[in-house]
Protein 1
Amino acid sequence: MDLQQQFEAVFAGIPYGNSGDNLLEANVIHGCVVNHDFAKVSIILEEDSALRHSLPSQIEEALKGISEINRVAVEIFAEAPPDEEEKPNSEPQRPAQQPQRSAYLQNYENVIAVASGKGGVGKSTVAVNLALALAKKGYKVSLFDADIYGPSLPIMMGLRNAKPEIVGNKLIPISKHGIDMLSIGNLVDEASAMIWRGPMVNQALEQMLRDTRWPGGDFMILDLPPGTGDAQLTLSQTVEIAGAVIVSTPQDVALLDAAKAVAMFEKVDIDIVGIVENMSSFVCPHCQKETPIFSSNGAQKESEKLDVPFLGSIPIELAVRQGGDEGKPLMTEKGDSAAGKAFSAIAENIIKSLETL
């Protein structure tokens, strides 16, 4: 049997409560998308249906019996989304049941997620400068800002108020510093507050991936929002991510959340490229004395504890902050500084780590 027939057989074997029908006969399967070994199933159940508690786990367990499927997510709707409801005066249509393979950014050799367990650790700064460090090594690099609530890449890349061109209903990424990038910050007013629930965030991310003419290349760097929420799961399900780079500062509070980020990616079967320690120490420009403001070597010790690669440390440097605020990232201006050399070394370590995954 082909994959579609296997799915239909599974759905036909699951009873729809005590109705006497199976899931296919009951028309509760709204949609099914397969991305490599991941299957996402959408079902329609009334808000007060007792099956909301038991049916998702039944579907998940049954689909994992298919040899190609290792991960399953079940999404529940109270009714079909408005754009897919039956149109007036038309014949009733059976909801889509066949699995359809889809994955975005397949024209990139490596898709790297830059993530952190908590905010304020300099994740976006690391993402931007790592992208530039890879580009300086001759790689073709793109950058996608997946932080819907707090997009910062337009400012850091010097693209404040820049709008992408639209050609044939497709967004064209904005090119700057030799990198093609796009952010929700380039599509909405900078002062706008994105007061969106999870499903709206997921839809926005998927639409930006689907409706953008990404050029492809060696690396796509995904700047994820902090934490372990909807955006991370959506991207793990719709993009074939080569691995995740976890950014942390050395103090215990940040490292605890970094460990949670590592655990999340492991649960969705995404490899950890390694951990980066940002703001590792401050070297006084006057007396050259080194001060570990946020403790020291914490991320390196944590990486050993978690058995994941340690990619390197980035010192606190005034030029890093200034470059981000002025839209002139450090790697475009002072790549030979201590922090610049650290970013370059970390980029090299990422390449080596990917080779071993």
Protein 2
Amino acid sequence: MSAKLIDGKAMAAEIRSEVRRDVERLKAEGREVTLAVILVGDDPASAVYVRNKKKACEDAGIRSLSYELPAATEEVKLLELVEELNGRADVDGILVQLPLPAHIDEKKILWAIAPEKDVDGFHPVNVGLLSIGEPGVVSCTPAGVMELLKRSGVEIAGKEAVVVGRSNIVGKPMANLLLAANATVTVAHSKTADLGEVCRRADIIVAAVGRPRMITADFVKEGAAVIDVGINRDADTGKLCGDVDFESVSEKCGYITPVPGGVGPMTIAMLMRNCCDLAIKRK
């Protein structure tokens, strides 16, 4: 493999220890950083995510409050809980684990979280601040991708970046962050004509499209940095794989993230960073 492997696990551990230091400093000043996590229903994947987030809180010295509600919980009850947590002086961040049961309007719940407690960066106020280049809370996965690039020494300013995928959670905020770092950004998606040609211009490719091994070596120019946000199950082997065909692309690009062990660990590390930053701001 000619590409430099970007180790997300190692960088996430660095960030978590930086957060731990800040959390301990706040504790010494009599301020305990607290994250409230709400899980509705018994979706097994969501339960695993919530468990991982609680473990990360413990590791960073962040107090976590856990609210595990039955799947039949009414929307109005969930809104009341969010409102109560918004008003609590001892809560710095509020996280509602998605997806929510079908009878609950996800948008209504996410928009009910106070922007200054929105650790996920999904509230329209935070999305708006990002789009006009003002400081706010940035959603964890794109924020993690920026850290991976910067800490690996990948030059961003003046470079061509292509983001494949236009979701509100990854694609759009990713494009805004790269723009803010002075890259020339193209957002490509399912309707993009000749995706290969668009990607071949890129010095940086961020693949966040949710299609296994879609980005192959012929999409990538020599020496590019390739960040794989995708998490898919390989239909044949059942193993996890990304949106990038790691074997072929790693022979051609300059930097690459693996799946697993690339972007994934960074997402939870940035969640801890966001929660700690919100506590510092509120202090």
Protein 3
Amino acid sequence: MNVRQKYRGFVCVLLGFGIVGLGMCSLAAVRGQIPSQMQVSESGELPELFHNAFDRLITKEIRAHAPAVSETEPEQKSVMEVGETLGGAVQESYQVLYSLFGRIPLKMVTVSVVPRKRVYAGGTPIGIYLKTDGVMVVETAEIQSGDGSRCCPSENIVRSGDYIKSVNGVETDTKERLVECISNCGGEDLVLDVDRSGEQISLKVHPVLDESGVYRAGIWVRNDTQGIGTLTYIDENGKFGALGHGISDIDTGKLLDISGGTLYNADVISIIKGSQGVPGELAGVIHYSEGYKIGEIEENRKDGIYGETIGFPARAEQMELYETAYKQEVVQGPATILCSVNGACREYEVDIREIRLNGSDVNKGMVLEVTDPELLELTGGIVQGMSGSPILQNGRIVGAVTHVFVQDAKKGYGIFVESMLGH
């Protein structure tokens, strides 16, 4: 074998390895786009995933099925049964094997049968007031004592993100109550009952007398927060969902543990346009009075804020009822968002650029770009305060706006409405 033949053989081997590697990478990419779990409205439905010619290459086969279980024979539930009920009916699930050409297994997907919901679309600005579950520690600080020395009584004892529930057994539901307990300590040690990431612990702090003659513990705290966002939906039972993302503390970045809160009507009074590197903002006024209450906030979760509407169903009569879409029904292409940026709630054109059915971040299930000339002129694209704006496509609510791309205000992320309804 001469040198030229050896060289050709070597090149062929490299080419073979390259083709195999490319194929494996392509398979991994396809598998990565297939979610491990999906929802459908009918038993035995086999969801499409790619909504293009590639779906013709995918074979779907039900491999395990959970039969309906009668109420008189609960002990016969299949191992595939979800075991939850919805409206008194057993929520069924089954497994579907997705394969390429019917020969190359891609992923086994668990499919749950969940009746399709209908919700009233929001799009209106809301004022949000949240009360933390306990007094939240923002940070510790130094204190100048009466003798001129400086110290930090709480350093390495309490931590940023702790929630102080009580002091010496006295409940501290406001920062004013906490300050009162500390200032009245008489120089004695205080026992703080604290919630730290769900763990209940007790901490001992020794306050010091500051230069003004008041006992202090050197803790910066917060017990409430407020802001403006957009209502996403109200369901047929009067429950609302908003924002599409949770509310985190501005200093610690942690999701706030709340004891409750209130939604109020709000009005947009000015718009700061977004630009490259600078996110825009809807500036508004919140009407903090009894007659302007929209609802009571019960949960602050990663996927949004939720609670009970006030004045339902009269409030729903002013809104339009839509079917909701399952995440695999969302397609790339034209859509609209419903929001109020210029005094009236209306639809604006957007384009869904990317869909992430198997994304790790629930708040970034899709990438969208504002294409509506009027909205681009008003806001420059997506701005703060538009979080929660419903995304509509093919006559259904498919999700809600969550974040803006800081470097490109025309683009942003959206959450699937399925994720919000499943909270």
